Amino acid sequence: MWIKKSEIEELSRQVRRVINGEEVDLRINDEGVLRILRNDIHILAKQKQEQVTALERDKEVLRNTLADISHQLNTPLTSMMLMTELLEDAPAEQQAEFIANIKSGLARTEWLVSALLKIAKLDSAVVEFNSSATTVQQLVHLATQPLLIQLELREQTIECVGDATIECDKRWTAEALSNIIKNASEHSPVGSVITVECGENPICRWISVVDSGVGISVAKMTKIFRRFEGGSESGYGIGLPLARAIIRGQNGDVEVSSNPDGIGTTFTVKFFR
User: Fold this and answer.
1) Residue 246 to residues 121, 151, 173, 228: CA-CA distances in angstroms?
2) Phi and psi torsions of 168, nearest 5°
3) The predicted structure's pLDDT at residue 60
4) How are beta strands 132-135 and 165-168 bridged, if at all?
5) Which band of pLDDT confidence, cut at 50, 70 and 90, is reported for residue 181?
6) How confident is the model at residue 29 (pLDDT cuts 50, 70, 90)?
7) Among 239, 210, 213, which Cα is nearest to 226's?
8) CA atoms within a 13 Å half-sphere pointing along the CA-CB vector of 92
9) pLDDT at residue 1 above 60?
10) Separation of CA 15 from chain center
11) What's the whole-number average pLDDT of the chain?
């Protein structure tokens, strides 16, 4: 069967419009010899457009993320630079205060950079999780080691209710649990108890961290795991998103809910079977 030159020329013009980014519907319903080719080109063009749209969306997310990172790093660095300039001419008592503030700012900046690097690794899917059997008690012990000073200053204690064995990457899971417990500590009153519970059901094995703070509103629940959005005055809004990314990388998830009595919040880490 012969193909008309005009049909080839028309198809060529439409393909060039697609290449230039125009929305063109190449599909036809007749039984002509070019029908299959036109429809296949249409599918290819749609896939190309979807890839371009996804790429633009990723670029926008990257731009916003870089802006957030720049802001989060610039604030403490600017403050520390100012205190450094004033340090030499300041009285002795004020010098000690400046030095303490600079040390605190450096520690917070170091934590932020470390957390961002970990999130970058998780986003790039280059992290290899090495699962092994470990108990919840062991995970809690590892998770609380970096928080001992904070817990002591706030006169808070960790109470583990029961124990269970979980298949997970011990180091990474302890990192996630540490961020969740740190958040619980920051939102609980001085002298309070943070409770860690665990268990299993036909769907998953779980670990819950229960604080005794003022609870969390539904509005905040929707953004608490968004980077740089769910932070408190003392945080960056990166610890909980990092925790969820770690758990999701191990076929799990992290959920949050307000306690029924209106006091406190529960974060539940789930490892699905």
Assistant:
1) 10, 24, 7, 17
2) -165, 175
3) 79
4) antiparallel
5) very high
6) low
7) 239
8) 0
9) no
10) 41
11) 85
CB of 39 closer than 8 Å to CB of 27: yes
Please state, in angstroms and rounded to a whole number, the distance separating the CA atoms of residues 136 and 166.
7
Residue type, 66: L
Sign of CA dihedral 94, 97, 99, 105: negative
Q: Which residue has the higher pLDDT, 10 or 164?
A: 164
- Tell me the range of 44-58, 69-83, 177-191 where mean pLDDT is highest: 177-191
* Cα distance between residue 130 and residue 260, in whole Å: 36
Separation of alpha carbons 240 and 4, rounded Å? 63
- HEC profile for the chain? CCCCHHHHHHHHHHHHHHHCCCCCCCCCCCCCCCHHHHHHHHHHHHHHHHHHHHHHHHHHHHHHHHHHHHHHHHHHHHHHHHHHHHHCCCCHHHHHHHHHHHHHHHHHHHHHHHHHHHHHHHHCCCCCCCCEEEEHHHHHHHHHHHHHHHHHHCCCEEEEECCCEEEECHHHHHHHHHHHHHHHHHCCCCCCEEEEEEEECCCEEEEEEECCCCCCCHHHHCCCCCCCCCCCCCCCCCHHHHHHHHHHCCCEEEEEEECCCCCCEEEEEEEEC
Share of the chain above pLDDT 90, in %: 38
Both ends of the chain: CA-CA distance in Å?
58
Domains within the chain, CATH numbers bracketed: 1-126 (1.10.287.130), 132-272 (3.30.565.10)
Residue, of 64 and 243, whose pLDDT is higher? 243
> Looking at residue 170, what is its pLDDT?
95
pLDDT value at position 163? Answer: 92
